[in-house]
Amino acid sequence: MAIDGKYIGLILAISSSLLIGASFVITKKGLQQSATASQAFASDSHSYLRSPVWWIGLVTMVSGELLNFIGYTFAPAILITPLGALSVIIGAILASIVLKERLGPIGIIGCLLSLIGAVIIVLHAPEDPQVQSVEELTNYMLQPGFIVYAVLVILITMGMIWKVVPRWGKTKVMVYVTICSLIGSLSVMAIKAFGIAVRLTMLGSNQFKQPSTYLFGFMCVAFILTQVNYFNKALDTFSTNVVNPIYFVFFTTATIVASAIMYRGWHTNGAVNTVSLICGFIIIFVGVYLLDSIARKSNGSVALPPVASASSLHSCTRPLSTRSTLQHEKGRLIRRILCTTRA
């Protein structure tokens, strides 16, 4: 008896969530082992590239994403996309067992609120049109609105890497996650274009004769490498239970915004969908704020060099400068001469 395509899609989506949720924990474990060996952040030196555990986590994540991609060919997006939230829940359960990470009541509430808000947005966001050729997708990408969005994303990302990461990367979880999410929204579009080119080539229409295919392939590599690099930095620095839900929310939101700009699909079907979208964003904001507060508290325990206050500087002994030392020695010599003369 043949299985309905909808159920095949659901099975693939659930399997994808299991693999992706497990991949976060496996990747984090590989980063921890690499950091223990090098006595530093593994993501700074890229020592995790020598860790077999990290590579298992990467392969697990790629396998999950492939299953999710195949799932879309069997079932509608309205059924597949919300199941992506399962990866966050699965990741949280595995992290508590394998990595001994605990979110606490506030963190659990923040995680659930973030997932609920993201699912509401996905269910009520406008659907993308069906694109059947590379040329058609290229025409969408060359629209002025999407060009402005892509340029802004690249400029903001470069600015954050240059200025924000060195200053706040190790203390604020939003920094690395924002870079991953913004670049991820562009990588989704590039992967979609390259995937269409590969599919048409397999059907007999060779798309590798067009320069745009190679451009999309280069964009996929560049964006994915950047995304993986800063996602590893986020996992290496912060708790998996904090990074996972925030990344899911930010990445989902950024992808929806990028799609809406590219396909000019800001219109929603009715006031109910519009109000639902607004409520979804408000719920996400509250959930992410709670998770960010957890990240700030966990980083507050990091030992930092003590900084003396102005009052303590006046009350404690300070090393004398060269000039004041000479004056002090000169005064002692004069006092000794006077004491000798009196005697």
UniProtKB/TrEMBL annotation:
UniProt keyword Oxidoreductase present: no
Membrane topology: Multi-pass membrane protein
Gene Ontology CC entries for this record: membrane
GO molecular-function term, one example from the UniProt record: magnesium ion transmembrane transporter activity
Pfam families, sorted: Mg_trans_NIPA
Subcellular location: Membrane
Assigned keywords, A-Z: Membrane, Transmembrane, Transmembrane helix
Segments traversing the membrane: 6-26, 78-99, 106-126, 146-166, 173-194, 214-232, 244-266, 272-291
SUPFAM superfamilies associated with the record: Multidrug resistance efflux transporter EmrE
Protein's name in the database: Magnesium transporter
Annotated organism of origin: Syncephalastrum racemosum
